[in-house]
Design a protein that fits this description.
With 174 residues, this protein is mostly helical. Helix content is 74%, strand content 0%. The radius of gyration is 21 Å and the shape is elongated.
């Protein structure tokens, strides 16, 4: 199960990276179209319809899909100045409390995020842009990423309790 979950976190992180690349390509294409439109008016369309909406949806998806991978790889910000001065037992207790509190907050946010997706589906909400996008699509990516973060937090909490030592390692910080 451990390997499957880590592979899932990594796949979500890779998809997040793909979304960031897609944002770069989309914005670059829009910049090229703006330049071509100014140099040779009428040759190509001067804008990609709803490109800002699509970039925003992809950014939201990338942000939430990367959270679980970032947690498990130790990329989230930790206060090492405080943690390194604590005894190993206190570090264990602090990490347990942090993971528990984070799980509660993420679970709360996940519940309401799921409710938002269901509400958007029920009412048929769409974006305001030139191309109407059903809002449940980007909201689902956000909800999935938040659900994956909750799984990663609980996975880490179970590992912490079963091993009796801190699980999350952070790279050396400057």
């Amino acid at each position: 199960m451990h390997r499957f979950l880590n592979a899932t976190y990594k796949a979500a992180g890779m998809f997040s990276a793909f979304l960031i690349l897609a944002i770069c390509l989309l914005i670059s294409a829009q910049i090229v179209l703006n330049g071509v439109g100014r140099l040779m008016p009428g040759v190509l369309p001067s804008t990609i319809p709803s490109y800002a909406d699509f970039a925003g949806f992809m950014l939201a998806g990338a942000t939430f899909l990367a959270m679980a991978y970032t947690l498990r790889s130790g990329g989230h910000i930790r206060v090492n100045l405080v943690v390194q001065r604590l005894s190993p037992r206190v570090v264990l207790i602090a990490e347990f409390l942090a993971l528990t509190v984070a799980s509660v907050f993420v679970g709360y946010a996940l519940y309401f995020s799921g409710a938002l997706v269901l509400e958007s589906l029920h009412y048929g909400d769409v974006s305001n842009g030139i191309i109407p996008v059903p809002l449940w699509l980007p909201q689902s990516a956000m909800t999935f990423g938040m659900g994956l973060l909750l799984v990663a937090l609980l996975h880490t909490l179970v590992e912490l309790v079963t091993t009796g030592s801190p699980v999350l390692s952070t790279p050396d910080e400057v």
